[in-house]
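Support request, priority: normal
Reporter: lab tech (M.K.)
Component: structure prediction queue

Hi team, I submitted a job for Peptide-aspartate beta-dioxygenase from Aureococcus anophagefferens yesterday, and the status page still shows it as pending. I've pasted the exact input below so you can check whether something in the sequence is tripping the parser. The sequence length should be 358 residues. Please let me know if I need to resubmit or if it's stuck on your end.
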Amino acid sequence: MAALDARAALADRVRAVDLSSDDDDEQLSPEQRAARAREAKIMAKMASVLDEYCLSAIGKSVAQAYLRKLRDDDMERVRHWWLRKLNGRECVPPASAAPTQRGCPELLEGLRAAPVWWRGAAEGDAAPPEELAWLRDVEARVPEMRAELLALRGQRGFQPYRSPKAGGDRGDDLGKKSTDAGDWNVYYLELHNMDFAENRARCPVTCDVLQAVPRRYGHAFFSANAPKTHITAHNGPTAKKLRCHLPLVCPADPPGACRLRVADEFVSLAEGRAVVFDDSFNHEAWNDHASAGRIVLIFDVWHPDLSPKEVKLLSFLQTAAMKRDKRICDAQGVDADNFYAVIDKARAATPDAASIWA
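Reply from support: The job had stalled in the queue. We restarted it manually and it finished. Here are the results:
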């Protein structure tokens, strides 16, 4: 479908269309018949896009009910995103996107695009902005979460971080590595509706803290970097969210040994002080300490500029897409090079304890 002018087509695209056969088409003016034909074409296109999510009949009705609200002022960001999907341009970066953000496959217009939202220890005693006010409550429970994390030593749950190779050559039998030095292991608590209940059962305090975080995105894990580890530059999968790094084990000396680069900004990590950034921007991480490991709690929250209604629609569609992808991946078998198979293969591996607890 050719790109349509957003202003001219917007009302047509989001209006609930009545195509009842009770009306006599011959009584309509040529303009009304043209408008009806255009509306029917648009609704057919919307139905085709929804088919990509493999929704049930009930699920499609729920999605259409959400889409009928796209004209509302508090649906503006998703409205533009949906128009881009209808025009087949959702993977084309908006003109306003920064160069360091263009590697992200899902960018939404109308969202504030700042690489770093909160710089941890560099903020001193300043109060976080209102949309991040929950940070202080999370940081207050760091001693409990750190004790819980350290109690995991000697237990299963940590696994090597791997992703699908997708033609890449930096990997092993488990999948693609995201490091060019050192080791990266993870302990998943929440990830794309996969079953990590056993991991969560060992971490009730951390899970309780995460449950209290407003607008959780549903993605959380402990991330362990061995000494002399470099996580290579990459972009996250979407701009719909912000990422929080909360260091629970982090060497203080030398200063800057544990750090992030997000776009053109560098942030040093300090134990117990959260950093919040937009991981749709190109970013990378280092633990340059010669002998001490670094473990952070990583979790995501929905972007503060998205309204509650926008979050509901995006969350609904995201859950549907994950279920669809899981079915496709399961059909490909356990040895396939896809996201879910790679995670499960890595789950069966036993990392070297020294790469986690150094």
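The chain is about 35% helix and 20% strand. Residues 308-332 form the longest helix (25 residues). Let us know if anything else looks off. Ticket resolved.
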